[in-house]
Amino acid sequence: MGADDFRALLEPGAIRAVFQPIVRLAGLDVIGYEGLSRFPPPPGLVALPPDVTLAAAESAGLRDELEVACLAAIAAAGVPPHGRALWVNLSPEALGHPGLLEVAGRLTSRLVIELTEQDAVLNHALLRRRLQPWIERGALVAVDDAGAGFTSLEYVADIRPDFLKLSRGMVAGIDADAGREAVLRATAAFAREVGARVVAEGVERVEELEALRAMEIDYGQGWLFGRPSPPWPQDAAPVPAAPLRVGAGDRLERDLERAESPRDACEAVVDHLARRGLLPSVWLAQSGRLRCQAVRGFWQVFDGVPPTTGILGRVYRTGEPAFIDDVGEAPEYLPAIAGVRSEICIPLRVAGAVVGVLDAESVTTHDDSTAAEVQRCAALLAARLEEVGALPPASPAQRLARAAARLAVLRDPEDVVREALAASLDLSGYESGLLALADGHGALYVHLAEGPFAVAFSQFAADELAAVARWVDDGTSSYTVGDVAGRGFPGHEVLRRLGAGSLIVLPVTAAGERLGVILLADRANRRPVFEDVELLELLAGQAAGSLRMASAVAQLRERASRDPLTGLHASLPVLPARAGVVIADVDGLGAINDARGQAAGDDVLRSLAGLVRELTPAGGRAFRIGDDAFVVTLDAPQAVSAERLGWELRSLAPARLGTTLSVGVAVGRPGESGEAVVLRAGAALNEAKRLGGNAVAAD
């Protein structure tokens, strides 16, 4: 064939596309089609095989253009039905051709690229770069003709394809050739180790199908299931059901029977489903989150999934299974790896309660038989979990890690104190505890106490707490050792009189600063395990760091909420019912600024802030709102004194400020909101201004 003959093949319609089904061997459902090109025979010659034609085109310098034309003919058939994948043959050299990438935009997103090069591919890094644009579009990768001579183990391990296609030469007569069966089993095992699914090509006989099923090969292609046909071939032709030589179900049940722990049982199930070409995982609930117990086909997973997140969380939370045909249309789906098409998620019930989920994702669509098998596996796993026991409780180290994670995100010092004491009691198993904090003057006070000793703890004097704190001046903890007749450190008497049989004391220290101390007590005579004490020491350190950070954040928030000139609060909170409100405004502040300068006006405002602080009663709060308006809020018991406060401000202003004030007063009425009280006080202030200033008006 000459160059003109090949150019004629590049004309639209010259190449005919046909499609052959690829089936899941377990259920014989069609999961995709391989698109194949058929060329018209040259004049006076018989039709040549596609690979021969492409090789001849390469000699004429038109190989890449011919591959583009082949892909365009396949794309013209449209998108395969039912979301099935489309498999296409592309040589590594043509992958980067701009024409191929342009045609890719007309192909389904469920694309599988079969690398068809028959020569050794030496530059794996270059091949990966050429594949990258296709993978970013969602394409999967298959290595074709495994066993035909070019595919090296190094090549497959380096490329890490999604599928490995076994050549017809490896499959033909597999039922009668023990040596070939051994090679195929080894190849399939290698494929699974690198995360690839196996497709057996050239399956033509039922006996070959039986052998492949017995070896748990994932997918098959060949005349037994359908010949290449115009788009789109009907589902695979009926094939007589063939019993497996070794029942997969029997093997799973045997593996589950041997499982001695929840983890072993989960591993058995994911191994079984992985042999069916799925990406399975098992998640069990622990401390309110789903923890991955076993997984196949993933290099990494999300873990610690809350019940409010993803399909896993929904199934665990509701107890209802999920069958997702297209994860792209499921808003709850958490995308983890490229190419996943479908997902089946089944709740695991033990003694009537949902304890976790069995999840099975797939790069292909799932059929009814697959869904039924996943459900069967979930039932078997749940039954075995009930026999071997549910997931064991979290270890002390796990509980510490979770407490540390909770402490790390807290920004309120009160929340830190509550979490630190609760976690200390949980880790130690002791029944009572207190957390004492430093008061800023070197003394400790009981900030929070829990348990049977809580009331007695709350009555500790500062010197008693100081004596306890001295026990950990030089070490990281102090604890009793189970000798009821033993002598205690100075200060122990008060605790023993209360009935404490055992104690643990931990310093709460950050950056060399003693922030407080944790005291844990129990009426029983207990000696803590050394490793558990170490965990408590780590918890106390984490609590100290979190408390220091939370205090710093609280101070920053406090500063941000205050007026920088006067130090008063700068925004009004929501007022309680029946509150009293006093609003004072400097008369003639603008004239002071004009005559004496801005600094003089600021001095007046600072003086007024000092006067307001001085006159505001305990429980009242003072604010600066706007340029020169000052507000005092009084709770209901003090509200009756609001007008008197207004007159005191007005009377003292000339001497203290060098100018006069206008004051508005309002007291909340039954059923009136705090906002309405503020508006009435503002209206009263306007009335005082209207009267000429230096006045108090009440509404």
Keywords:
single chain, 699 residues, alpha/beta, TIM Barrel, Beta-Lactamase, 4 domains, eight-stranded mixed β-barrel, five-stranded antiparallel beta sheet, 23 helices, 23 strands, 40% helix, elongated
3D architecture notes:
- The protein has 699 residues and is of the alpha/beta class.
- The chain folds into four domains: 219 residues, EAL domain (TIM Barrel, Alpha-Beta Barrel), CATH 3.20.20; 141 residues, Beta-Lactamase; 163 residues, GAF domain (Beta-Lactamase, 2-Layer Sandwich); 119 residues, Reverse transcriptase/Diguanylate cyclase domain (Alpha-Beta Plaits, 2-Layer Sandwich).
- Helix content is 40%, strand content 21%.
- The strands form four sheets. Strands 1-2-3-4-5-6-7-8 form an eight-stranded mixed barrel. Strands 10-9-13-12-11 form a five-stranded antiparallel beta sheet, sandwiched between helices.
- Strand 14 and strand 15 form a beta hairpin.
- Helix 3 runs parallel beside helix 4 and helix 14 packs antiparallel against helix 15.
- The longest helix has 31 residues.
- The radius of gyration is 39 Å and the shape is elongated.
- The termini are far apart.
- The relative contact order is 0.05.
- About 1% of the residues have low confidence.
